[in-house]
Amino acid sequence: FPFRLFPLREHGMNWRARPLTCQEIQAFRKSKEVMDRFIRAYKLMLGFYGINLVNEETGELERAENWRERFENLNRFSHNNLRITRILKCLGEMGYEDYQVRLVKFFLTETLVEETLPNVKRSALDYFLFTVRSKEKRRELVHYAWQHFRPRSSFVWGPRDKLQKYR
């Protein structure tokens, strides 16, 4: 079977690659070697996208030195958005839910606040946000997106009355 860099429990674009089982995920998560390789692969992909992992404990991210060139690539080629969604889902499967939150917030900030990734905005809102496993963290991210989305009246990713009251 073909090997995937960020395997999931669902089929992706390559139908020859078989989905992970729950037992495989548990085995991966128990192996220090596998998890070290996973983090190396994550850092490699982040680098490709113009992002650095600043802190392995927290998942904190920042723009890499070559961010302008790499963001141009992200804006030009939408197939990267599918890969990012896959990476986000895999982070959740492998127990890196804090990393999920950090990566989604990074993309929300770059798309809605900094406006450096306009062609990634829809994917960040439609897909990236909803890969976050923690309902509470997902709610915080939806609120963050709502706060920065313009025009706010066009925000459709959460109920306006609840977003206005959210603390």
Automatic annotation (TrEMBL):
Residues 5-164 form the Opioid growth factor receptor (OGFr) conserved domain. InterPro entries: OGF_rcpt, OGFr. GO terms for molecular function: opioid growth factor receptor activity. GO terms for cellular component: membrane. Belongs to the opioid growth factor receptor family. PANTHER family: OPIOID GROWTH FACTOR RECEPTOR, OPIOID GROWTH FACTOR RECEPTOR OGFR ZETA-TYPE OPIOID RECEPTOR. This is OGFR factor. The lineage of its organism: Eukaryota, Metazoa, Chordata, Craniata, Vertebrata.
